[in-house]
Write a structure and sequence with these properties.
The protein is of the alpha/beta class and about 375 residues long. It contains twelve helices and 16 strands. The chain starts with a strand and ends in a 5-residue tail after the last helix. The chain binds phosphoenolpyruvate and manganese (II) ion.
Amino acid sequence: VAHPQRLLVLLERDLQPADVERVRGTMAGRGVESRLADEYEDTVLATTHHEISPESLDGLRAIKGVRRVVPMTTPHPLVSSRDHTASEVRVGAVGIGPRTFTLIAGPCAIETSEQSRAAWDAAAAAGATVLRGDLFKHRTSPYSFQGVGRAGLELLAEHRRRLGLPVVVEVLSPGQLELVADVVDMVRIGARNMQNRDLLLACGRARKPVMLKRGFTATIEEWLLAAETVASCGNLDIVLCERGIRTFEPSTRNTLDLSAIAVIRERCQLPIVVDPSHGTGHRRLVPSLALAAIAAGADGVMVDVHPRPDTALCDGPQALLPHELGELGAQLAALARFVERDVSPVGAAADDHDGGNVARLSRGPR
Ligand code: PEP
Ligand code: MN
């Protein structure tokens, strides 16, 4: 049955203007007028209301240069696929998604070569398959440690190679995104930047998976619209990260909103991971919340670790000690088996990737 609806047409990336016009012409020939969604004009066509049958929808999907055609039944149609098939995002050889449980760990910030090496070794030993460790810190105070900056890039590259694990780092600006692009496997948009439009657009145009943290005063709907902004530029490789929101409760640094996992599952096909370190701010609370996250259906957790948290330049009170991360890693792996998720997340596509990585990543418990 035909009924009026608004459509969003996501184009292939890097179409020439002539190709965009050809697609629009073909669509117009079938009675579907369109306009370029402003700002994202290289990627998305929005159409006006049309009577359209399921068959003609399939016809539009078959036009060369068209990547997706989605009815605008929600304000964020690209991240809310209609059938809600959970998607998997590949970060290097690691798949973050419904079949796996991914432990992401490392220091909050790269401080020294000894400190970061010890933290990454602890992460790898605990079964982490993605490493974190920031070069740039977005601190609330201008007098706090701001990160070692580009000086840490080589260190990051060296240990990524040595451990054979992909890395995620935060970028605060489009310029930083370019700076780290050759070295990192995934970029992170921090809570303070969740609605930084230029950064969202730059990450959307990049060919790199993006972790999008929830702003600490953002509703889930606002968070999804930020993800949609990234997706509207053609990048659908987005992993959401719940990291706590601001409430009246002072016992924890933030109030970790685990209900967001269930709500996101209802509204969105993107993977979601949880950061219990920033979510609680206290080392002793991190394991319970990490375990709660996996039980609630999260696709992974991201945890801070530091060899000497008492000397940390950033977020020491929430960093686990290496042996604590090891214990947590074992508990998460046990729970992952129970919820039928693989913690050795080189999925079916393992063969596409280099042998070193595969050997390294396959070592975790099944
Ligand atoms: C972080 O993960 O180091 C961080 C700065 O977190 P958030 O952006 O959630 O505050
Ligand atoms: Mn931190």
